Amino acid sequence: MASRREARRIAVDVLYQADVTGHAPAAVVAEWHEVGRDIPTFSHELVEGVEAHLPSIDLLLERDAQGWSVDRMTSLDRTILRIAVEELLYRDDVDRSRRGVA
C-alpha cells in the first residue's frame, strides 16, 4: 500500500501526462492499467476529483494567481496546484479548520 505522499506523486504523474498529451485523465489511468502500472486508491480519487472539479479549480487559480493565467503556468506547476486545491476544498478527509475555509 502506497503512502499518501507516494499516492499524491502518482496522481501528479497521471495528471501531468494528461495535461501534456491532451488526453483525459481517465484515459491516462486506463493506459496505465493496460501496461500493468498500479494506481493506488488515493491517487485514483485525486485524479477523479481534479477531473470532476477542473472548471472550478481553474477558475479559482485564474482568479488568485496574480499576474499568471492558468495557461501560462508550467504544466507541472498547474498540476500540483490543481491537486492542492482539490484536496483543500473538495476532500472530506481534510479538516475544515485547517483549510481556512468555513
CATH architectural grouping: Orthogonal Bundle
- SS field, number of helical segments: 5
Distance between the termini: 33 Å
Order of helices and strands: HHHHH
- The CATH topology turns out to be N-utilizing Substance Protein B Homolog, Chain A
CATH superfamily: NusB-like
Gross geometry: globular
Count the E strands.
Answer: 0
Counting helices, strands and paired strands, the structural category is mainly alpha
Report the helical percentage: over 70%
Largest sheet: none
The rounded Rg comes to: 14 Å
Provide an overview of this structure.
The chain has 102 residues and is mostly helical. It has a single domain (4-93), classed as NusB-like (N-utilizing Substance Protein B Homolog, Chain A), CATH 1.10.940.10. 71% of the residues lie in helices and 0% in strands. It contains 5 helices and no strands. It has helices at 4-21, 25-34, 41-64, 75-90, 96-99. Helix 1 packs across helix 2, helix 1 (4-21) packs across helix 3 (41-64) and helix 3 packs across helix 4. The longest helix is centred in the middle third of the chain and has 24 residues, at 41-64. The model has no long low-confidence stretch (mean pLDDT 92).
